[in-house]
Amino acid sequence: MIQGNIEGIREAALSFLNALFEIKLDKDRFVSRDILLPLAEISAKINREISVSMDRRGHVTEISVGDDRTASLPVIAADGDKLSGIRIFHTHPNGDSRLSDVDVSALLKLKLDAMAAVGVNDEGKITGISVGFCERRGENFSCRLTRSLSLSQAENLDFLRILEELDAPSGKKGFTTEREQEAAVLVGIENEGMLDELEELAKACGIRTAGRFLQKRSKPDNVTFLGSGKARELSLYKQVQKADLVIFDDELSGIQARNLEAILGCRVIDRTVLILEIFARRAVTREGKIQVRLAELKYSGAKLIGAGVSMSRAGFGIRGGAGETKLETDRRRIRDEINALRKELQEIQKTRALRREKRDRSGVSRIALVGYTNAGKSTLRNLLTREYPADCSAKGSEAFAEDMLFATLDTTTRSIALPSRRILSVTDTVGFIRKLPHDLVEAFKSTLDEVSYADLLVHVVDGESGEIPEEVKAVEAVLAELSADTKPTVLALNKIDKMTPEKISAVKEAFGRYNIVEISAKQNKGVDSLLKAIEALLPQKTKRENYRIPYGETALVAYLHRNAIVENEEFEEAGVFLSCVVGPEVSGKMERFRVENAKKNEKN
Predict the structure, then answer these.
(1) Residue 272: closest CA among 330, 334, 201
(2) Which of 333, 439, 458, 579 is the most buried (most CB within 10 A)?
(3) 9 and 129 together in one domain
(4) Is residue 340 assigned to a domain?
(5) DSSP H or E segment with residue 514
């Protein structure tokens, strides 16, 4: 039975749609032109969306007819961590074949095998087909999208192989989507140097730069950002460069993006979308994924402007009330998801707060590594934990460190021991960048709070960069947003092996307000000097003490394990002997059990 709004549809069209239930595709075929061509023709004639659901046996399971912008999706019960076994094709009678954020959200929520959008023009011709697949990443799924495909390309998709590779527990095994091979034109206002960084961001998303387009103007145009004449010039340039994507270095409003897409005839995104995509790909922990998703939802919610190319044509159908517009439905869905994610994030923050409280009681000083993305923070963190491990430090894996933007997103904290045997905790934080989206900073506040609670900051600077002043200012701006710009700071000038003496002198002159130490984290140079500078600025909050706890009061042994750093523990006749690093609170409470080193082996 056909679902939805079938009023006014001719009997011949309804007969064809009903006949689809009798079709059976070979299980390795993704779709057939025998289905899509008549479907596109009917959709154009009635100017309504049509959604067709199909299972893995090649049977059509549900057909729904909507209006010109919306078609209901089937109610599918997601079975744990398994894909639903259902793929959905829905037509777009205005010719746009792209999947929107809401389409992608439906793909992931229903755990569909695939979601395909079929663009249909006024003549009933297919303008393109975009497909989204669920890709397994650990216990979760993310979305993998193709570029706009022709009907022949869609028919020839190796559907079963794609499913096998993307749904494998180990994650991606070599399947490369069309989107990863996209070529983009980068667009900026005046400063071409900023496009160098934009190109690196695009590269991090697997996008090739086909060309650059600069516009000289004092402020962006409210309608098309560039101005109508320059936008048409960009359209011609994009065609000459054979690009299928245009990326703007500045944030676009919803109206600007929609107007540009109409002029350029391709997808248009901005720097913020690019950064959000990188964060979504790199986030590993549940907390990181929630934070990225929150930023994406806030950004998407701000861009909703009504029925345009950025809006979904495939809504959920069962949640909207009478008279409720698609725009209102999307806004409510985003609000609901934001609230749910915030609650989950609060629970994770409670656990983080408990760990922070334990470190507070132990009195261990905390330092945070901050800096521009790809400055070498993770490399320095790995060096410190490898060469200066605290005896009590749990052995953990090294942070991922590669020559790429935002190589690591998830904050990690480890203990190290200075040459003086003083214990410190070192936190590696997410890298900063110019024009870092405010929503992203807000979403990552719980992670970046580690910066706010640190006793000292180590600001790692990429000495190889050609824009050190701008990058330092960008980091300072984010620190100011976190109210951490007044903390004691050591500026670690990294990669000095790649700097000339003249450049080093220029940096020291420009940033004389900092205590500057020259290092090379990769070659382990200057790190001793860095640790001396750190120790000189940190207040001494801990001391080493020895305690002997009688067996009748072993609850205090557990107390020390919870609130101090236990470096050594031995079981003697008179009780448990412990060597600990303690803070003032623990020291006062345990004073009556304190013993000197010389008394360690005495039997009471």
Answers:
(1) 201
(2) 458
(3) yes
(4) no
(5) none
At residue 401, the pLDDT reads 46
pLDDT digits (tens, 9 = 90+) for 504-541: 999 999 998 899 999 999 899 999 999 999 988 887 77
What the block records as the tokens of 489 is 């700071």
The mean per-residue pLDDT over the stretch 200-208 comes to: 84
Question: Residue type at 97?
Answer: S
Chain-centre distance for alpha carbon 135: 15
CA distances to 257, 540, 547 from 596, in Å: 71, 21, 8
Task: Indicate whether 153 and 265 sit together in one domain.
Answer: no
Q: Domain for residue 293, yes or no?
A: no
- Residue 11 tokens read as 């009997």
Q: For residues 427 and 429, what is the distance between their CA atoms, to the nearest angstrom? A: 6
Cβ distance 59 to 69 under 8 Å?
Answer: no
Count of residues in the chain: 604
Please report, for residues 357, 394, 591, the alpha-carbon distance to residue 351 in angstroms, rounded to integers and kept in the order given. Answer: 10, 18, 30
Q: Please give the average per-residue pLDDT across 214-231, as a whole number.
A: 87
How large a percentage of the chain has pLDDT more than 90? Answer: 18
Q: Which of 163, 178, 193 is the last residue of a domain?
A: 178
pLDDT of residue 318: 29
The HSE-up count of residue 117 (CA atoms within 13 Å, CB side) is 31
Q: Looking at this protein, which amino acid is placed at residue 268?
A: V
pLDDT at residue 346, rounded to an integer? 81
Terminus-to-terminus CA distance in the chain, angstroms? 88
354 assigned to some structural domain? no
Contact 326, 69 (CB under 8 A): yes
Does the pLDDT of residue 23 top 70, yes or no? yes
Order across the sheet with 515-518: list the strands: 412-417, 423-428, 365-371, 456-462, 489-494, 515-518
Judge if 374 and 420 occupy the same domain. Answer: yes
Same domain, 158 and 216: no
CATH number, domain with residue 238: 3.40.50.11060
CATH number at residue 395: 3.40.50.300
If asked whether residues 173 and 24 sit together in one domain, one would say yes
Q: What is the pLDDT of residues 252-295, one digit of tens each?
A: 888 898 899 888 888 888 888 888 887 777 666 777 778 778 88
**What's 592's domain CATH number?**
3.30.70
* Cα atoms found within 13 Å of the Cα of residue 50, Cβ hemisphere only: 26
Token pair listed for 109: 């929520």
Residue 212 has pLDDT above 70, yes or no: yes
Domain count, the chain: 4
348 in a structural domain: no
Residues 129 and 200 in one domain: no
Among candidate residues 178, 213, 230, the one where a domain is terminated: 178
- Place 444 in a pLDDT band, splitting at 50, 70 and 90: low
- DSSP-derived secondary structure for 327-356: HHHHHHHHHHHHHHHHHHHHHHHHHHHHHH
Instruction: Find the helix or strand (DSSP H, E) in which 455 lies.
Output: none
The pLDDT tens digits for 91-137 are 988 888 888 666 777 788 788 889 999 999 988 899 999 998 887 76
Residue whose C-alpha is closest to residue 522's, from 492, 502, 500: 492
Give the helix ranges, DSSP H, for 464-554.
468-481, 501-510, 527-537
Residue 212's domain comprises 182-278
Q: Are residues 90 and 156 in the same domain?
A: yes
Half-sphere exposure for 178 (CA within 13 Å, toward CB): 16
